[in-house]
Amino acid sequence: MQIIDLRNNNIIITGAGSGIGRETCLLLDKLGANVICLDIDKNGLEETRSGMVGQNHEQYVVDLTDEIALKEFADDVILKKSLIHGLVHCAGISSRKPLNVLKKEGFSKIMDVNFYSFVELVKHLTKKKCFCEGGSIVVMSSISSIKGYKAKTEYCVSKAAVDSFVRCMALELASKRIRINSIMPGEVLTPMGIKAREMALLSGTDEIVNQPLGPTEPYEVANLIAFLLSQATKTITGTSVRIDGGASV
Ligand SMILES: NC(=O)c1ccc[n+]([C@@H]2O[C@H](COP(=O)([O-])OP(=O)(O)OC[C@H]3O[C@@H](n4cnc5c(N)ncnc54)[C@H](OP(=O)(O)O)[C@@H]3O)[C@@H](O)[C@H]2O)c1
Asked: Could you tell me which residues are beta bridge partners of residue 137?
């Protein structure tokens, strides 16, 4: 039998300065992991760190859209930790644009954070032998990957790309015994989730994500992430797990 055990695991979390990323850092700290926290927001990162008690955590202020900084980050982490057990991509941005204002630049901006930076991280971290056999990668998708929402095209497309990438990588990385999965929330009570609801109410035209079981708390998503990171799920790969209170049923 295997319970969730992440003691001394070196785990990278992007988007660690807020919401789901922060909650995951706090949980992994309690579970004894060494957390490598990344965010663009220095103050947010410091606030997250102040809630953690472990002594072996690292903090990096990095803009994930800066490819050079991203590569330097990956190289530095590999140098310091030599072996990585997990990667969790929680950094993300959203947008609200109807068809008549959609442009290539807008897609690029959202794809850079939600998708391309994740591709680059997976590429840098799984080369050679830096990512541990039996290691696990988790990325935040959304039910927007499988559902349409008015004026959310850029965001929905970026999440569909993430899920497609996960399925392909599950096969490519299986020979290294690295697993990769995504998580599809509906509405989570974080700054992003709360703002999305406010914007939808203000516009009066957008669809609001209505979860029959009510909104999801960030700690629920963090628990699911820890579960997927652990050896308790050693044959779960290439899948997208819904945590949406029934919104997509
Ligand atoms: N909350 C929801 O209802 C919900 C639902 C479905 C899926 N998700 C997904 O879950 C993930 C986490 O969402 P959340 O609700 O926790 O959002 P959040 O509270 O806004 O946290 C996201 C974090 O990512 C950081 N970030 C943004 N751009 C970055 C960049 N270029 N480089 C480095 N860090 C960057 C943000 O910094 P700034 O604040 O400075 O931008 C913020 O600290 C996202 O992928 C989101 O799409 C959320």
From this structure: 87, 180
